Amino acid sequence: MSHQASETTSDGDEWRAGTATRAITPDEPMWMAGFAKRDEPADGVVHDLEAKALALEDETGRLAAIVTVDVLFVPREIRETVTSRCESRYGVDPDALMITATHTHCGPEFRDFKLRMYADEDGPYRERGADYRDRLEDELVSVVGEALDDRTAATISYSHARCGFAMNRRLPVEDGIAHVQNPYGPVDPEVPVLVVEGAAGDGDDDGREADSSPQAIVFGYACHTTTIFGTKYCGDWAGFARRYVEEEYPDATALFLIGCAGDQNPYPRRELELAKRHGRTMATAVRAAVESRRHPVRGPLRTHFVDQEIAFEEPPDRAELESMREADERYLRVRAETLLTELEETGTIQTEHPYPVQAFGFGDDLTLVGLGGEVLVEYGLQLKERLEGLVWIAAYANDEFTYVPTAQARYEGGYEGEDVILRTPFSGPLEPDVEERILRRVEAAAERVRGGRTVR
């Protein structure tokens, strides 16, 4: 059943916009990403994994693209390769290309460090991971090009709704933080929605007529895509939500931008039917936003990308790493081997990391921020308070990285605050000042792309 979108409060400036979708489901069994306890590769498909792109051009000819991918993370190296190729092939500046992962835990693992940690050592999974990584880069470049080729005259508008199946998963207990649902912990119920509609009148250079039905619907929510634990490729609740939105609006391509979901899980969970139910709940929220009174989103489009150096605590010394290399747990042995190799090859272990912060400014109407890694929900809540106007905070963008805790979470510890670092190639937990470093960098980036608005 299709539905008509509501009209915006006033006409937005004309844009040119296009969309594209490519299936990225592996052609062969691969090890799956996200859950360390899996002990076998993928053995089927619930629905296709997808890469989707929304290409935009403002009235000045400025190009940009938003890409969403059904994988756990998009490593920095993939972003750098894809942005370089898109710049040379299509003329899209690297700071104007935002690549985000939907963070599905039912997609392929192609990061060699993780495959060394968890995959069957006698299987072909490291080789398949490297091959899939090459394919993914090609698919991302292609989906951007296809979206650019699809551009037609368009208007853009914004609204939002609310959703409630996300719950905080950091529960304070007597001896620390338990990794279970906490109904009293902070959550972000907002579902931001961007609607791209055909601008009635001009059509495109190929003679296609423009119309006012939704051409693209971008939606977000701060919640892990971890309803399902299994061995079949699937986009989890977000994959179902996109499909339900596209059923409601048959002319639209639906894209999902995950928010600051580092400590947010869907509940209830662990059943495929629950993933479908959460997807339907989300699609209903998106429909509510689409059919409400929306704000026009006008140009010009301004973009900015910057790396903020953030620091880790001091790394373990050589003796500690040598001891860790003899641990029973394979993930600890791989971590130790990785850090010892770095120490032997460079004479040191890196204690800083370039953390990506990206901002898209749509005139004075909307600021979209992309943050790397698994950002805890308080970042999104704080930034929407600290920045003026309509603000959309997306995470899992442009780099895999690790969890990004608040200063309080670092103090409290627990999985996101400290424990997870043992499953990464990084030297140690992040310094407590990471929160303020990132918040200030986002404020500066937002100011760069706004047409006169400043932070509060």
UniProtKB/TrEMBL annotation:
<dbReference type="Pfam" id="PF04734">
    <property type="entry name" value="Ceramidase_alk"/>
</dbReference>
<dbReference type="InterPro" id="IPR031329">
    <property type="entry name" value="NEUT/ALK_ceramidase_N"/>
</dbReference>
<protein>
    <submittedName>
        <fullName>Neutral/alkaline non-lysosomal ceramidase N-terminal domain-containing protein</fullName>
    </submittedName>
</protein>
<feature type="domain" description="Neutral/alkaline non-lysosomal ceramidase N-terminal">
    <location>
        <begin position="30"/>
        <end position="108"/>
    </location>
</feature>
<feature type="region of interest" description="Disordered">
    <location>
        <begin position="1"/>
        <end position="22"/>
    </location>
</feature>
